[in-house]
Amino acid sequence: MSTKAAKRHKFRAGKMTLLDYFLLVLLTVLSLMIIIPFWNVIMISFATQKEYADNPMLMWPKHPTLDAYRALFQDGRLLGGFLNTFKILLVGLPLSLFLTSTMAYGLSRNKFPGKKGIFFIVLFTMIFNGGIVPLYLVMKSLHLTGSLWSVILVGSFSAFNMILMMNYFQGLPESLMESARLDGAGEWKILFSIVLPLAAPIMATITLFYGVAFWNGWYDAMIFLRKAEQLPLQNVLRTIIVESTTNVSNASSVDALSKSGFSTGMKMASVFVSMLPIMCFFPMLQKHFAKGVLTGAIKT
Predict the structure, then answer these.
(1) Span 266-284, mean pLDDT?
(2) Buried b vs exposed e over 142-176: b needs ≥16 C-beta within 10 Å?
(3) Are the CB atoms for 234 and 161 separated by under 8 Å?
């Protein structure tokens, strides 16, 4: 191919086709469909009740206020909810990673005895489960109802996450494990010294999955916990919002309505408060996330 022909081919390859323009427009529209509601939620949390009533699709409040956040944080239960959620994360996240990684490593080894039977049992739980009543009876028999341990143990293992990690471990070279065994390393040494350092993408992915699940969890706490001071953040926010909405619905005058607070603003403020830590945490794991999901989802 001549120099002119090569330049012409390169120029044509750099041009955008009709399909490229269509995909660009489509992705832009989809991005705006995500960004605009998200931005609207944040702006409503800073708006007054009158501004929201005049324009529900508010993009920028003329008179921004922190009343919704002030009312939200003045409730002493919010700090307790944050503290309980951090307790659950502090204990539950390492426990979940330990249980998932150890089982995934065992099932990823070809010579593991009973591998197919154990894997079938784990896979069976993804399709069928006993339901909430047997789970509650198990926790009650272990005397864990009314304790944060019930919430931690219920969410400490996910069959889906284990399968992702197992598939990733199967893609690692077996020669690394064999050479470590020849040097006298045991399975625990191989797992923590060789396998896990090479599995940073999938570990970051599973950490994000478990972290988001623990942070957003509310159903298990509603079932197993009884004391208000034990409730995690999501349950506390739910209680505050329900009380705020109830006060608004029971308000009999304009003055009472203004004193009861802007319930929609509190809802939007609670949404922003609850998702802000995850938004700050996600960028740290983003570079590993796509690789971990892709590699773990493909069986080698």
Answers:
(1) 80
(2) eebbebbbbbbbbbbbbbebbbbbbbbbbebeeee
(3) no
